[in-house]
Design a protein that fits this description.
Length: 450
């Protein structure tokens, strides 16, 4: 907590980097209050903290145009991070070996290691907990609607006596510091307030792992250091092999706390409004409070398993702008502009550009092109009562969350809680390195000279 902004206190609060009041986790596992940090600007006089936060251009008749950008945002902890959350892609032996080394080294520096609940059980040699699931229903073999009398495929019987395979394969305590298992901590999903207890998130895996880690924080999120251990690694700029050199300046016991450059990646918040049955009196802006889910890449409204195209009304700032008729609509962040939106024909947007991308999915139109809206826009998507599809699905970062019926709507706006990811060099350099390396942007043979 306690983010400070010497230049603009109000802007600092709206940036989402503020943790608010600091407090321990609710189940009292011994995790102390987190370390506060502040955002740094060039006005602070730091030679190693150069930030282009504002510029003024003189126009006709003495008018000045003031522009503000967060391309170079620097932050600094007030003291060493103490509570380090480790999030990793499970099932990869190389990642697990790296994770063991990280955990042992972080523990040796006097910091507290937080891991996922099931991983902690493996570390302590306890039984691996798996959520109970209902028996699989018999599968229909016909196209009949409802409960028909046609034959069905028997459900697969699962043996309750089988041993649960350890997903992590953490191994023994060999090579770990003495007492490490007892000092390691975890959290209770849905109960512990992680944003008040975690100083730094270390992510080892791919872009999906980073999205999963971001989903753990419905409010303010601490800085994230992402190591590449997946297949694409667009959002993971740090090589996994250099993890100690990367973490040493942040966690090393003998290191001096220095400012670091972060990319404040925009996230979305979403609200849902259920139908009142009145087609003529629909007005946006009457949605329920936002659901506790933050979208890092995109919010997708799609036809789901229906064979019909979807019909969606799109409103921007409570004004109707268009009707979508196709497979769906993508509302993407600048970070998500290189994900599903790119596959659907959307443009790539630099993560520091404050914009909202609307990209149609297979529109039944030759003139429907993606558009970029300002970050102040509030986008409402509604399923009209005249739609043929009786239900429409809403997916957040690739996972179906909500089902919309005729007359229902969602409202998407920029969240005040961005995802601060630590840069390897700078926001722009990291982004172009990913665009060129992972996506092979504009790759072709060079034309010969005349």
């Amino acid at each position: 907590g306690g983010l400070e902004d010497g230049a603009e206190p109000d802007a600092a609060a709206s940036s989402g980097l503020d943790h608010g009041e600091e407090s321990p986790v609710s189940d009292a596992r011994g995790v102390e209050r987190c370390v506060s940090f502040k955002r740094q600007f060039s006005e602070d006089g730091l030679q190693d903290c150069k930030s282009r936060t504002s510029s003024a251009a003189t126009m006709h008749a003495g008018l000045k145009l003031l522009t503000i950008t967060q391309e170079n945002t620097w932050m600094k902890w007030h003291s060493k991070p103490r509570n380090i959350m480790l999030v990793a892609k499970p099932g990869d032996p190389e990642i697990i070996r790296t994770l063991r080394g990280m955990a042992a080294w972080i523990d040796s520096q006097g910091a507290t290691v937080l891991v996922e609940p099931n991983l902690l059980r493996e570390i302590r040699g306890e039984a691996w907990a798996e959520p109970e699931s209902d028996p699989a229903p018999c599968m229909k073999l016909c196209w009949c609607a409802g409960n028909c009398s046609c034959p069905r495929m028997p459900a697969i019987q699962r043996s309750t006596s089988r041993l649960i395979t350890k997903r992590w394969s953490w191994g023994t305590s060999e090579g770990l510091p003495q007492g490490f298992a007892a000092r390691c901590r975890t959290w209770t999903p849905g109960q512990d307030d992680l944003q008040k207890s975690v100083d730094l998130v270390v992510c080892v895996g791919g872009d999906g792992t980073l999205c999963w880690a971001a989903g753990l924080f419905s409010g303010a999120m601490p800085p994230v250091i992402a190591f590449a251990g997946g297949s694409l690694g667009f959002l993971t700029p740090f090589p996994m092999i250099d993890w100690m050199d990367t973490l040493l300046p942040f966690i090393g016991a003998n290191e001096i706390v220095r400012p670091v450059q972060v990319a404040c990646r925009m996230r979305f918040q979403m609200s849902v409004s259920r139908s009142s049955g009145d087609e003529d009196n629909f007005r946006p802006g009457k949605a329920m409070p936002p659901i506790p889910v933050q979208a890092l890449n995109e919010v997708l409204v799609h036809r789901g398993s229906s064979g019909n195209l979807v019909k969606l009304e799109v409103w921007v700032n409570q004004r109707p702008v268009t009707m979508v008729q196709g497979d769906g609509l993508i509302i993407a962040t600048p970070t998500g502009s290189t994900a599903y939106s790119l596959s659907a024909g959307g443009t790539m947007v630099h993560p520091s550009v404050p914009g909202i991308i609307l990209t149609p999915v297979c529109p039944h139109s030759l003139s429907f092109r993606p558009v970029v809206l300002p970050d102040s826009a509030v986008v409402t998507v509604r399923v009209p009562l005249s739609a043929r599809s009786s239900k429409v699905m809403v997916a957040v970062d690739g996972k179906d969350r909500i089902e919309l019926k005729r007359g229902d709507s969602i409202e998407v706006a920029v969240s005040k809680y961005p995802l601060p990811t630590v840069c390897k060099t700078s926001v722009t350099d990291d982004w172009f390195l990913s665009v060129n390396g992972a996506l092979q942007w504009n790759l072709r043979l060079e034309q010969k000279g005349s």
